[in-house]
Amino acid sequence: MTSSRPDLPDPAHPAALGAAGRPGGADDCGGCPTAESPADSEPGSAGPPASVVACPNGPLLVRGNFEIVTPDGVPIPRDRETVALCRCGGSAIKPYCDGTHKLMKFDTTRRRPVPAAVVSRLNAEEEAGSKEQ
């Protein structure tokens, strides 16, 4: 599968992605800490456990020993220990971030309202729990 945007790398070849998962090594996710993988460490090898950092208004940075798979369980290749995963939904190279969150002004500080059905269910569960006590 190739990218629909010619300026972006093919997601099947994450080697073209930078430290934060973006083309050309760009590390610019709004002050989020990133680090290149040590040259002697290979993804999937024994190493530090996985950790996830949610960058403000940006991607999820995932570091350490982890595997990314498709819904069918097929591993998605990666060649570095740290990757940036899209959470804005706009990346042309999903699951990796391509920086589109900046163009669309992705904002993680806005809270979405809780759907009425969820509120009703939670209220009903709370009432049922208080009656049992």
Largest sheet: 3 strands, antiparallel
Give the CA-based shape: extended
Spatial order of strands in the largest sheet: 1-2-3
Query: Which spans of ≥5 residues are poorly predicted at pLDDT below 50?
Result: 1-28, 33-41
What proportion of the residues form beta strands (DSSP E)? 5-15%
The DSSP helix count reads: 2
Count of individual beta strands: 3
Estimated radius of gyration: 19 Å
Classify the helix fraction into a percent range. 10-25%
Element-by-element helix/strand order: EEEHH
Content-based structural category? alpha+beta
- What is the number of independent domains? 1
Q: Whole-Å distance between the termini?
A: 57 Å
Mean pLDDT: 73
Descriptive notes:
The protein has helices spanning 100-103, 116-132; strands at residues 51-54, 60-63, 83-85. A hairpin with a 5-residue loop joins strand 1 (51-54) and strand 2. Mean pLDDT is 73; it is low at 1-28 and 33-41. The protein has two helices and three strands; from the N terminus they run E-E-E-H-H. It has one domain (1-133). The radius of gyration is 19 Å and the shape is extended. It is an alpha+beta fold and 133 residues long.
